[in-house]
What does this fold into?
Amino acid sequence: MRELNLLQHIYAHNDQLPGLVQIPPGDDMGAIQLGDQTLLLAVDQVIDGIHVDLKTTSLQRIGRKAVTRNLSDVAAMAAVPLATLATATLPRTFGQDRAEALFDAMRQTAQQYQCPLVGGDMAIGDGPLHLTVTILAKPDGIEPVLRSGSNIGDVICVTGQLGRSLPTGHHLDFLPRLQAARTLASDPRTRPHAMIDLSDGLGCDLKHLCDASNLSAILFENQLPYRDHANWTEAVGNGEDYELCFTMDPQSVPKEAAGVRISVIGQMIEVKQTPTVSLQRLDGSRVCLDNRGWEHQDQNHV
Amino acid sequence: MRELNLLQHIYAHNDQLPGLVQIPPGDDMGAIQLGDQTLLLAVDQVIDGIHVDLKTTSLQRIGRKAVTRNLSDVAAMAAVPLATLATATLPRTFGQDRAEALFDAMRQTAQQYQCPLVGGDMAIGDGPLHLTVTILAKPDGIEPVLRSGSNIGDVICVTGQLGRSLPTGHHLDFLPRLQAARTLASDPRTRPHAMIDLSDGLGCDLKHLCDASNLSAILFENQLPYRDHANWTEAVGNGEDYELCFTMDPQSVPKEAAGVRISVIGQMIEVKQTPTVSLQRLDGSRVCLDNRGWEHQDQNHV
It folds into this structure.
């Protein structure tokens, strides 16, 4: 099954959505209008064997990741977390103590980021451990940054480092880039024109930004910030970086935002036929990266 | 594992929640304050083999139920649906066509109830089909009705009929009692003092209302509205009725609300030691119903 086809099928109905829907499915978060307030919404799944491994990972880190993954989506909109809801389907043999430890980790992580757990649902099932976290956020004075809006000539930037997130444990311990996003987006000079968080892999996620902005992207191998001596295929394809990828005016790129290093890794360019993402290798050759990442394996956002 | 213990563990932290949380975990929906708006939130899971059976049930009805179960929670607060988010973990062999049919059913049901699908997440997994639906709702001029607030001497009422929801297919085709709840709650004479929706079974769900209101309940076998010649054990224990159970002033019980029949089935009484739910049989004997239902089997709300 091609997840992308299913997503296209869902997006095809976005034009039927009522006026209260300000950001339809297809961005890092959706948004609705509630009175004079804008409310941002997203939901993510964490499944044992796909996103985490119960055999090698503490319940504390699993519960934490279930919440922080969603907070990375909040960062991608430059928004402020508001509240969370969680579901768990626990294997029959899971046990009371471990269930409590898992919920405590989700509750405490949510509380730490000022987005309290306000509800949820629990079931016992025959499949693997399955968690979902729904997160609500608010713009709080900063217009949400979308995946669309990139301009030709914009530089492409990322926070932090890329690749080898799984072997290094980064995918469990990462800090969602909430403050960096707010700092960048609140200053008109540094406000990203388009932004996405890197969960499925740079090749794949940047392609979404290109599609939404109807532009192509060229990346430079020698400019990628490599984590743990990752090679370029790992940096563009591993996924689970939970960093921000954004495009902005080349004149005003800061070296860091809220203490997080920012690297310029490429440029937005005109579309030839359809939006593509390419990488210029050290030897000058170019590789097409379209959808390099998790897209067709396991998981995607609606 | 006793789900109830885990829920108590979670509720024990409710007093640490910040002021923006207006209704903490433990009611049909949680609520937060957003500007001058109140936002109600709930999430529910639908798992193949527990809540639905893919072998015998159309994808259309499964997708519908995933949404209408949550709408029943909205009805229990007398609120108005606003928006939905959905996740799906699909078995590897599920296929594109069936995935589209399932999402179409969720999307169309959500749209039909004016709560558009604004986001979600999809994964492919090794377990059974797993869906979650998060629902947002607004009070829209009617103060939410809680599980607490019942008075001694209140009559206990239910909408519709009870029992045999699975064999009759009611659990798939039920109509969430949204309009009945609004009609009752908008009139000060008929406004329920406390309300819950019946998903886990009357014995179990009414116990939650009793606990929240710190009162006991006595039901009368001869007054229960039996679906499909259910017996009393089926009516109080089958679950999946998706009807409303509420308590109100005995003087002003209407025969119906928004075309839905209302039956008086019992009375709220003083607590002896802890809140209990009892049934008075036809022969005058009394049976304790505490937690009769699904509670310890499969599923519960946080």
Observations:
- The first helix of chain A runs from residue 3 to 11.
- Confidence is low (pLDDT under 50) at residues 295-302 of chain A.
- The longest strand of chain A covers residues 80-91.
- Chain A touches chain B through 74 residues (CB under 8 Å).
